[in-house]
Design brief:
Length: about 220
């Protein structure tokens, strides 16, 4: 799964990844937790590609509304096309979620947290879904979920799942293609050799610890 990540670059840097300009003001986040707002690139209902904040924890358009007891932060690649909460967004409402790195915990080692990032500190981009919910009276929630897949051989020593990481040459396909069979082929483990991981402090376990210090490598 993917339950925590960092979004510490500026919105302008993230927008540039997708060929956009942005005037958003969004604070750097080093310990993004579920049920908070995250930056994502999507094609809006009006057909415009944009970088926007979305609530992390999908709220399907047909649901009764936001319920933090049942937070759908991750969608499994194996069932994203068939699960009721995800199949419509998979067909029509996909998004790209840029991150500077993400966290995973090694269960067999006292739940030791690790930080995973690009070796050159450039952002990684997750495959995501988004949806919109409103009550018909002006209360509206726009939300997202991160798609996960089986772990690569690189990630497997610490966890059996990982977020789907997309390469730049398929960003536009992910946002715009209507070929769901093709899109399904993109939902595979990231096997490039340009990511690294290292152990970090247990401080990351508390979402209130949200500073660059939590990224420090344990000696």
């Amino acid at each position: 799964m993917c339950g925590r990540f960092s979004q510490s670059s500026s919105p302008q840097d993230y927008a540039a990844l997708f060929g956009l300009a942005s005037e958003l003001s969004f604070p750097p986040r080093y310990n993004v937790s579920p049920n908070s707002d995250v930056l994502a690139c999507r094609v809006s209902l009006e057909g415009n590609k944009e970088l926007v904040p979305l609530h992390w924890g999908l709220v399907p358009s047909w649901s009764k509304g936001l319920d933090k007891r049942f937070s759908m932060i991750n969608a499994r690649a194996e069932t994203v096309a068939t699960k009721p909460a995800y199949r419509a967004p998979f067909r029509r409402h996909r998004c790209l979620i840029p991150v500077d790195g993400f966290y995973e915990w090694h269960e067999e080692n006292g739940k030791q947290p690790y930080y995973i990032k690009h070796v050159h500190d450039t952002p990684l981009v997750f495959a995501g879904l988004w949806d919109h919910w409103d009550d018909g009276e002006g209360d509206r929630v726009e939300s997202c979920s991160i798609i996960t897949c089986e772990a690569s051989s690189f990630m497997l020593p610490i966890h059996e799942r990982m977020p789907v990481i997309l390469k730049p040459d398929v960003f536009d396909d992910w946002l715009e293609s209507k070929d769901t069979d093709y899109l399904q082929t993109l939902l595979v483990p990231y096997v490039e050799s340009d990511i690294e991981m290292y152990p970090i402090s247990l401080a990351v376990n508390n979402p209130r610890h949200d500073s660059a210090e939590i990224l420090n490598r344990l000696l």
